[in-house]
Amino acid sequence: MIEIKTSKLSNGEFNRGVFATRNITKGELLHEAPVIPYLNEDHEFIEKTILADYVYEYGANHTAILLGYGSLFNHSYTPNATYDINFKNHTFDFYAYTDICAGDEILINYNGEVDCDDPLWFMETDKE
């Protein structure tokens, strides 16, 4: 249902993104990404590495590295996918927020809410 391909949206070193290999229906589960959680106080070590750009908040006291395709979804303020944290299964569950056509890049809002337009750490913005 999904695959990793070169993305025109990613301006990172690897330029990767997650793409649909078939049409996907709104609400459909796209991916369950297992997590490796660590205490927020240990984030100072991760900040010294490239992994700092790929981690997610995981509850009040933890941050998580997502396995699988979880850290490869690119950002959009008009996403076609969203995610829920599944603490019971220790996964981030990614769902289609809209219908997605085969070949489309699957995008999430890095702010965690599909309609949140707060500026992000890697974007220069004039928003106030």
TrEMBL record:
Enumerate the InterPro entries for this protein: SET7_MeTrfase, SET_dom, SET_dom_sf
Using the record for this protein, list the coiled-coil segments as residue ranges, or answer none.
Answer: none
Origin: domain of life: Bacteria
Q: Which CDD domains match?
A: SET_SpSet7-like
Occurrences of domain SET (ranges): 1-111
> Protein name, please?
SET domain-containing protein
Protein source organism:
Paenibacillus plantiphilus
